[in-house]
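Sorry to interrupt, but I need a hand with the structure work. It will help me judge whether the discrete encoding reads sensibly. Write everything out right here, beneath this request:
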Amino acid sequence: MSLTVQTEQRGDLVVVSVAGELDMATAPQLQDQISDLLEKGRNRLIFDLAEVSFCDSTGLSVFVRAKNSTDDAGGVVRLAAPQRGVLRILEVSGLVEVLHTYPSVDEAVDAQESPAT
């Protein structure tokens, strides 16, 4: 399965909607999109994961790198609406709190800096 990535500006936030399988083969595509956003000064990112059916460690590392880059730039990364399997991977890896994970995009958009898992 392929990966699709779309972006939508919401105020000072960019919602990055990801769909498909996020793995070693597709993670570079998402990483390229994130790099483009950061180069344009967009450092407040919400990743909409509602349509991500699978995410492996390569995919997780993309989110961690995004968080590190946005932290350095004074921005933020939030994850929104992960499916059960993806949420489980985030929980087991301990990244659900680090990556500020929310049940919906709207909750992630409205959230302050503290996670509401």
